[in-house]
Amino acid sequence: MDPIAQLLNTLFTVEAFLLIFVLVLLKSSIKFVPQNRAWLIERFGKYQSTKEAGLNFIIPFIDRIAADRSLKEQAQDVPSQSAITKDNISLTVDGVLYFRVLDPYKATYGVDDYIFAVTQLSQTTMRSELGKMELDKTFEERDVLNTNIVTSINQAAEPWGIQVLRYEIKDIVPPQSVMEAMEAQMKAERVKRAQILESEGDRQANINVAEGRKQAQVLGAEGEKAEQILRAEGEAKAIIAVAEAQAEALRKVGEAADTAQGQKAIQLDLASKAIAAKEAIAKESSVVLLPDSSTEASSMVAQAMSIINTLNSKQKG
After folding, report:
1. Per-residue pLDDT, 304
2. What pTM, to 2 d.p., does this model score?
3. How deeply is 29 buried, as exposed, middle or buried, from its count of CB atoms within 10 A (0-12, 13-18, 19+)?
4. pLDDT tens digits, one per residue of 31-77
5. Within a 10 A sphere around the Cβ of 83, how many other Cβ atoms?
6. Residue stretches of the chain with pLDDT short of 50
7. What pLDDT does 14 receive?
8. Secondary structure (3-state) at 259
9. 102-122 burial, b if ≥16 CB within 10 A, otherwise e?
């Protein structure tokens, strides 16, 4: 084989090898970091830098990617566990933890496995917070419980570069005996509310009946009062009418008595009344005393006429 051809073939092979080597070096040195991720670079086993999203360069065979950390919010299921409340009730609780990596360096070198660490921390914190609350409060104040757990975890997880955003309790399961007692209590509460509502209805009905009776009595009293007023007004008008009639009669009698015929009529009337009085006295008593004067009736009439004449003379005078 021609030496020149062999030399050219060797040079081509070397150039091809060099080209491939350069391409491999370029491929190893150029790194494209995805969005919301961070790569931690170590040089000779020591932390060198943190590469963020975009185009980055490293030294091949010297630098290496030690860790790839996601900066997105992550959801981690917290396994169910037992916890004891303040009133010594054992509960089975599970939840979901939402967190994200704030500092990739701390999350890599501050703790061996930050996901495992934050999960265990959330479990211990949840048991601690449940131990501060009574059973009824765990159901009524879940938001307060979640907030307290998040605050406690963030204080402990700060050296790890982790921020806990939310903690949600998925389920709280008390023992069967406690559930039966709670169900009985809820049933008793429902019966109590029903009885209260029924008694309130009865009370309102009694009040309405009493109010109706009261209004009826008031209306009856007002009607009776109005009736008495009308009766009194009628009687007053009747008395006035009688008095006016009597006055008119007396006036007419007086006018008639002022005449000669009237005087005679009065004398006759007086004599008749005197005789009638004598007769009445005689009927009532077995003993009748007669006056000495046989002309007593005529004298009585004369006296009455004298009085009438005197009165008439005064009126004329």
Report:
1. 57
2. 0.52
3. middle
4. 888 998 999 999 888 998 989 888 888 888 888 888 899 999 999 99
5. 20
6. 288, 290, 292-295
7. 72
8. coil
9. ebbbbbbebbeebeebbbebb
Q: Which residues contact residue 157 at a Cβ distance below 8 angstroms, ignoring those fewer than 6 apart?
A: 99, 117, 118, 121, 163, 164
- Cα–Cα distance list, 99 to 33, 147, 219, 302, 312 (Å): 22, 14, 76, 138, 130
| Contact predicate 122/153, CB 8 Å | yes
CA distances from 292 to 178, 272, 289, 306 (A): 124, 20, 9, 22
Single-letter residue type at 221? A
Classified as helix, coil or strand, 75 is strand
Which residue type, as a one-letter code, is found at position 122?
A: S
Handedness of CA 38, 42, 47, 48 (dihedral sign): negative
Helix axes 114-130, 142-157, angle to 10 degrees: 140
> To which residue do tokens 């073939």 refer?
9
Pairing of strands 63-70, 54-57: unpaired
pLDDT for 294: 45
CA 89 vs CA 81, 134, 178: distances in Å: 14, 8, 8
